[in-house]
Task: structure prediction
Amino acid sequence: MTSLSVQNQQPFSIDNIPILSVKEFEDSLREGLQTQARMIGLFGLETTESTTTVIAVLSHSATSAIHLLGTTFSPANNQYHSFADVYPQTNYFECELAESHQIIPEGHPWLRPVRKQTVILDHQPYALYKMKGEEIHEVAVGPIHAGVIEPGHFRFQCHGELVYHLEIILGYQHRGIEKLLHNATPSQQHILCESITGDTVIGHSMAYALAVEALSNASVSLRIQVLRALAEELERVAMHLTGLGGIANDVGYAIGSASYGRLRTLVINSTALICGSRFGRGFIVPGGLQFDPIDDAIEVLKRNLHVVQHDVQVINEVMFGSTSVLGRLDHTGTVEKEWAQSIGMVGPAARASGIDLDTRSQFPYGAYKYIHLPLITLSSCDVFARARMRSLEVDESLRFIFDQLENLPSGSIQSEINAIRPNSGVVSLTEGWRGEIAHCAFTDSKGTWKRYKIKDPSFHNWYGLSLALRNEAISDFPLCNKSFDLSYSGHDL
Amino acid sequence: MQGDPIVRDVHHAALPPLFRGMPELHPEKCPDGCKECANICPTSAIQIHPLQIDIGLCVFCPACEQSCPEKAIHFTNEYHISCSSRNQLIVAGTQGRITPEFAAKKIRDYFGRSLKLRQISAGGCNGCELELNATSNVNFDMGRFGIEFVASPRHADGVVITGPLTKAMAQATELCFDAVPAPKIIILVGACAISGGIFKNSPEIDRTFLTLHIIDLYIPGCPPHPLTFITGILDWLGRKV
Result:
């Protein structure tokens, strides 16, 4: 395949991305998709009056390579052959490109809006999928839900209790983050990236910081890298405990929900000990960290985490040993491996469907280049697997944190940030607690952002939730939803 | 194995020393012509001459405190910062904490012992939502004061709004508030809801709803600590706990 091949966080000159004819672009991309590459971006890089340059980004876990290639479209010539009929993983990316640039994938199986529900795609307003039949009925939920959660609209096509199809309509959280980033000062960019989704502050601010550092040839101390990884694992532990508490709550298992909730508080309070924010806000900035944890804080952190490690063990045994809990989790919301793979699922949800995929081991960055975490997969592909996966990851992350706390490297927590390279780009991948986060950053001739494209792991996985609901009882929707635990704001941007 | 995780005295909890709550300002320390803090502030929440911070706009990042050459700004871990009027959010000196004025007698009579709230996330990043959820966990247990989140606006005495109010949520927000029976209150939680925060200049937001209704309570923070929310409501309702 004709492409520019780079590593995670390796800066490149934009001129080195091959800009092909539409035909060559299609052939090359198809060749890449055939070799198990995954699409992680398909977006407009720049638009002039007569042309739009589109960049496709593929990642190849087996070789840790990231491939970039481009083509140009014009208003008169704004079509290409869709890949989605053969490679469903590109489906949503093609919709996104159509929505933002009116570039139409010919033969796309199901062109639908991503964030702007009123957008006109391919000359027709979008009508929600609807089944017909005497006993078919439709259930509409949202955008405002019963719990204290973000807004999204869910449309179920049901036959009695049974769900035939779930369509998920998002975009209610769209705040225009990517556009705001283009004209923002460095301190604003940092806050915007922390606010992409407030439950993955570390994951996104890390991807942003690493992108900026790559483009300014900054090198950061080992202490910075280890403390960042520590914060990321703390975030993972905290959010996995939140999710497990939610799952316990959704099956009516009160002791589980109370216990995971209590332990999660201990974890996020420990994060606040280090940086003043329970969600790690203000900790990671380009060039380093804004807080250097003092020894006393580290001691309390260790003490807290020992409590968490011990008590999590106990509550895990109780919860995953309870037949009434397992009866609700087993064989619920199954997404078979082939399906998960074909739609490009990522993160713990993908690993719970047996897919070997973890940015920390396959596209290592920061401290994960030197210190490895085991890549765990499960094979039952259901709510149980997704819940169990999260509890296993909590164990591994805690082990990682304790190991690092034993001998934290010394060194500075801030390094100089040089000027950002003009006319360059970088793809910055990190493994947030939901899975692969991708920030694709491109600069103009002055070294300011020409395009800053963000992809949250939820962008892939919402479709997984739709599939999980097929042939499932509608009453199991909250449980399936919680087992994926996806982000609305990260998707909507 | 549960231990005793509950924060029994919600007014005297010890938050971590680094927690950024009520700011303390020392304008007398400011060198002539220095604008470091105002220049670096991501949401332009700081004004110089006289030095003041709008904590309804502030995202409680450490940028101003860290950039100040004279340590004229310091965020204390005081979490009593909720208030009932927008002006109270402009902090100028070292006032220690903010106490909301009492709600009207009718509101205190109606909701003083039982307040049910419907939450609306209108562009919230899930930071405020997580902290609002935390108010109901075993640590903070807001339910013991008769304050709870409910599933339907029909069951609610008011709405709690998070997020900068996106265009896509403008209509749903209005419809939800209409569905709450009167008398009803509006509580804004977090910098985004109070002022737009980091998104205040986004073309994708529509804050018309807020100009049409009276706001009863402001809970600042990014996100606000669960205790800021709980103590803010208790103080506003004149509840002694």
